[in-house]
UniProtKB/TrEMBL annotation:
Membership in a protein family: Belongs to the class-III pyridoxal-phosphate-dependent aminotransferase family.
Chain segments annotated as transmembrane: none
PROSITE patterns (UniProt xref): AA_TRANSFER_CLASS_3
Gene Ontology CC entries for this record: mitochondrion
Name of the protein this chain belongs to: Alanine--glyoxylate aminotransferase 2-like
InterPro entries on file: Aminotrans_3, Aminotrans_3_PPA_site, PyrdxlP-dep_Trfase, PyrdxlP-dep_Trfase_major, PyrdxlP-dep_Trfase_small
One of the record's GO molecular function terms: pyridoxal phosphate binding
Residues making up the signal peptide according to the UniProt record: none
Taxonomic lineage of the native organism: Eukaryota, Metazoa, Ecdysozoa, Arthropoda, Hexapoda
Coiled coil (UniProt feature): none
Amino acid sequence: MDAQEKLPKSETVRLRKRHVGQSCKLFYRADPLKIVRAVGQYMYDEKGGQYLDCINNVAHVGHCQPDVVKAACDQLAVLNTNNRFLHDNLVICARKLTSLMPAPLSICFFVNSGSEANDLALRLARSHTKNHDIITLDHAYHGHLTSLISISPYKFNLPGGSGKAEWVHVASCPDVYRGKYRAVDYPGQDMGKMYADEVLDICKKARGGGHTIAAFIAESLQSCGGQIIPPDNYLRNVYRYVREAGGVCIADEVQVGFGRVGKHWWAFQLQGEDIVPDIVTVGKPMGNGHPVAAVITTLEIAQSFKESGIEYFNTYGGNPVSCAVAIAVMDVLERQRLREHATRVGNHLLNSLRQLALKHLIIGDVRGVGLFIGIELVEDRENRIPATAKAQHIVSRMKEEYILVSSDGPDRNVLKLKPPLVFCQENADHFVKILDEVLTEMNDDEVTMEAGSPQRQKKANHPEFENSPNEKKIKIDDQQSEKIIKV
């Protein structure tokens, strides 16, 4: 057994089945991994097998990052208590976190998870606006609390889900590839405004039906919905419509914040410097695996919450250890220039994947920014039918090749990459190489046509068919180049 392993794997499996709720999902359920240690962008099983981690956006600055580990251990050896006592770590963390936000966002509430942060954001919105209803996006997921399942179509639309509550209004996910409005169907149109106008219609209908809008909440880049990058002008118009309706705007940065997008600290900034939410929620990467999260808002909204007369107290939120960890994470991000690294490696990976798409027609779309990337798999590019079963096969095969990747989206056909930000160019090249081999293997197994068949001939005649994914540079239009390719 590995030195870190307390039980044989078979016993771990047995005890998990016996004592852990079966609704708690395992990765690779048919043959689950037992991970006993991790460092940087690598995870290790009980046999010493090394896996390239493309899944863990939580281990933001790398698994077991030494400075973060030291900060936690040093503070835990001295004091850990609640935030009703004065402590420097709390105020230093709040000062640092708000310094990374646009100016109006200056007040912090510390919590333990993204779910707690989003739940508190709803309370702040309702307290400030005196309104009740929430606008959310289709396929959205905002957390596991009852209040958040109610605004998460990703969950409440499941067969065993509760369905949509009357106070919840669902707008279409701004997916320009396979969504309600596809860019290919509306060339030259302002796709952002087209999707945003649906939110305007929701606001009007809500008012007409006697409902009041408290907030619009959305991930700045939708993750569980399939790695969706909203089109330009989307948030600009949505935020205006919601504020005119008396609501506030909540940016859920739990998955995509703290520099994952490279160019900016926060993904909402991709839509323009003038885009400033009223409330921002952060979590997962904030603690690099330690449970710490926060809500950042304006002085006015915080004051409205205070005037409600209900004290907000969170036993562990803002404790000295959690704040020490968060401070260390932000220091590492700046000192190691991981935002710039995410831009450079992310652009290289996007370029390589787009080249790979020229060879493998199953890749319908490659989208992303920084180290937030989605690879949408389709049965055919014209009808864009989701290749769900093939996506699941690819996830399993990549695991067999010691690469951890997952799929998501409403049809689970989008391979999503959200690796630790220390993921390097060599890792990117290795990922693309193995994905190319797996896709080629699938083609060889699946295509049993005669050499002269029209389908085979069409594929063989494709100009990139014989080229490896890194031999040529992909052609992209100027607008995409400005947003994705330039470093």
